[in-house]
Amino acid sequence: MYSAAAAASSPPRRDFISVTLSPEEAVGVGGYNNSKAWRRRSCWRKWKQLSRLQRSVILFVFAFLAVCGVISYTSMGEPWKSLTNKPLDEQRTEPEIPGLKLANPAVLPAPQKADANRGDYPELPPQKPPKPPHVRRGPPNLQIKPPRRDVRLKTQHDTSSVGQELVQADQNEKTEKSVISWRGAVIETDQSTEPPSSKMKEPEKPTSVEAEDQKEPVPINDRQLAVIEAFRHAWKGYKEFSWGHDELKPLSKSYNEWFGLGLTLIDALDTMWILGLKEEFEEARKWVANDLVFDKNVDVNLFESTIRILGGLLSTYHLSGDNLFLEKAKDIGNRLMPAFKTPSKIPYSDVNIGRGTAHPPRWTSDSTVAEVTSIQLEFRELSRLTGDEKFQKAVDEVMKHVHTLSGKNDGLVPMFINTNSGQFTHLGVYTLGARADSYYEYLLKQWIQGGKKENELLEDYMRAIEGVKKHLLQRSQPKKLTFVGELAHGHFSAKMDHLVCFLPGTLALGAHNGLTADHMQLAEALIETCYQMYAQVETGLSPEIVHFNLHAEKGHKDVEIKPADRHNLLRPETVESLFYMYRFTGDKKYQDWGWEILQNFNKYTRVPTGGYTSINNVQNPSNPEPRDKMESFFLGETLKYMFLLFSDDIDLINLDKYVFNTEAHPLPIWVPA
Ligand code: DMJ
């Protein structure tokens, strides 16, 4: 053992430190003394006994340890901090081997992602926490209730007037908080549907509750039952012979494929919901869930697929609260977007939804004015629901552009627009029939949908109705029926398409929304004419086109029909307008007229083995010449409007809360009246 003194006298090179303790100090001679003073003195003495080198080395070691301590503290600090801030579930050291579970799972389950279905919309803002119940939104203002089958049938004659119902409905609204549909979607009556803003909202999530409908449903009556029976008969044919295909061919018991997307089934979904056909709805829903695929190499017409498919899916989503329909709507909506990639942004008529390409018809680069201006309600609503502005932007741009275009005649538009130049073509021909009709309808309905704020739309609508009055209105002989003719290069033609019969309903809707009362007078006159287009014909069914007599001639009726125009395609427009007229006036003659029409459809177009068919000749009751085709709009529109017309429940699609697209699919008004 080396002594410290020896070490100091002969300083050989050492690479260790030796500390020599005296025997007393080592064993504590004199007894154990552990006093503080003794310990301090003893330490000091030992320190003094060390050589300078030894002291330096010890000091250096201490200093080194201190520096290391500080460094390691700062570098450990962050991970430690973040570790302690992480949610508990993330702090759990889950093994990364799939299928291997923790032996002791956490007591609380890990929080779920707010909405797993939103993965395909990366641009959406993160989901906010759910709002408290009193501000809950969507699906908006659902007023649909299943018609009650177990209650006493109520005929049209024992119902109170629409005026009284309006008052009653108002009172009900004040006292009620929510209504619930038969599939469990609940809507708060005081919630409004908000318009899209520049900063888009998140998708609305419907809320389901297990509760009973708080509002006593208005019982369905025998005329509504007759509509249900007609629907079931049509559906029977569709189901047996054309399930999942576009259109039933009821005579040949086969089907017609147009887009190959189950057009009739989708068009009919919300009708089944409104009619309370649960079983049929569920079966159709399964088809949508399992078999409806849009990833197909097929050309679809932008307008038709928007109003029937996108519109049908959106309205069914709103009525049912079932997210499946919104997901499908998003899918088809995205696939239709290539149509807008044109030099002028006026969309092409056709889109290949599988390939993502679009093109005009083979013979022209024009699109139809009605087609490019009657897709707005649907695309705007899709933006509101998804939070993705692109849909609304595309269709709003079309409207803004058309608003500025020259070539109008007192608000009346030509029938074609060029996708390259963005200009109207075939100038000088004006009609409210085919190729222009729903332009006028959607001016008003977009204005209503958006909460009556978009003044340009209203301006264009008001100007156009003035244009109709100035250039297209005439009276027939001998009955002096007011009708809407056509203007071709300054020449008036007394020709009116059945399609024009949407107009009385639209005018009445405008008047109901505060527009001038003379629109309502015009609506009353025009719906009388549309009814006469049925009543003056041998089968009691309207032809596709009529010509009115302008001069009284002995033995001539007001309505003339050309051989090429005497077909009937089961179209809805007159029944649609009857529905609006009854809702707003309560005049039961409108229900009676609709009832006559339904009976005539049953008499001349019903196919015994299932389905209804278009006919070739409305003038021949003994042989109306069935055409072997049931259009999807017969289920989507005609029967739906019949059912609503016969109903005395104004909350069965409340017109202050919903606006119908041009295929009779109700979409919510963003700021309901
Ligand atoms: C439907 O597809 C729509 O109502 C469209 O607006 C016009 N044509 C048919 C019904 O007639």
From TrEMBL:
Pathway(s) the chain acts in: Protein modification; protein glycosylation
Keyword Transmembrane helix applies: yes
Show the disulfide pairing.
C501-C530
Tell me which cofactor or cofactors this protein depends on: Ca(2+)
Q: Where does Ca(2+) bind?
A: T662
The record's listing under InterPro entries reads: 6hp_glycosidase-like_sf (IPR012341), Glyco_hydro_47 (IPR001382), Glycosyl_Hydrolase_47 (IPR050749), Seven-hairpin_glycosidases (IPR036026)
**Catalytic activity annotation:** N(4)-(alpha-D-Man-(1->2)-alpha-D-Man-(1->2)-alpha-D-Man-(1->3)-[alpha-D-Man-(1->2)-alpha-D-Man-(1->3)-[alpha-D-Man-(1->2)-alpha-D-Man-(1->6)]-alpha-D-Man-(1->6)]-beta-D-Man-(1->4)-beta-D-GlcNAc-(1->4)-beta-D-GlcNAc)-L-asparaginyl-[protein] (N-glucan mannose isomer 9A1,2,3B1,2,3) + 4 H2O = N(4)-(alpha-D-Man-(1->3)-[alpha-D-Man-(1->3)-[alpha-D-Man-(1->6)]-alpha-D-Man-(1->6)]-beta-D-Man-(1->4)-beta-D-GlcNAc-(1->4)-beta-D-GlcNAc)-L-asparaginyl-[protein] (N-glucan mannose isomer 5A1,2) + 4 beta-D-mannose; N(4)-(alpha-D-Man-(1->2)-alpha-D-Man-(1->2)-alpha-D-Man-(1->3)-[alpha-D-Man-(1->3)-[alpha-D-Man-(1->2)-alpha-D-Man-(1->6)]-alpha-D-Man-(1->6)]-beta-D-Man-(1->4)-beta-D-GlcNAc-(1->4)-beta-D-GlcNAc)-L-asparaginyl-[protein] (N-glucan mannose isomer 8A1,2,3B1,3) + 3 H2O = N(4)-(alpha-D-Man-(1->3)-[alpha-D-Man-(1->3)-[alpha-D-Man-(1->6)]-alpha-D-Man-(1->6)]-beta-D-Man-(1->4)-beta-D-GlcNAc-(1->4)-beta-D-GlcNAc)-L-asparaginyl-[protein] (N-glucan mannose isomer 5A1,2) + 3 beta-D-mannose
User: What are the record's GO terms for cellular component?
Assistant: endoplasmic reticulum membrane
Residue stretches of biased makeup (Basic and acidic residues): 147-157, 199-216
One GO MF term on file is:
mannosyl-oligosaccharide 1,2-alpha-mannosidase activity
Question: What the protein does?
Answer: Involved in glycoprotein quality control targeting of misfolded glycoproteins for degradation. It primarily trims a single alpha-1,2-linked mannose residue from Man(9)GlcNAc(2) to produce Man(8)GlcNAc(2), but at high enzyme concentrations, as found in the ER quality control compartment (ERQC), it further trims the carbohydrates to Man(5-6)GlcNAc(2).
Q: Provide the protein name.
A: alpha-1,2-Mannosidase
Q: Which organism is it from?
A: Columbina picui (Picui ground-dove)
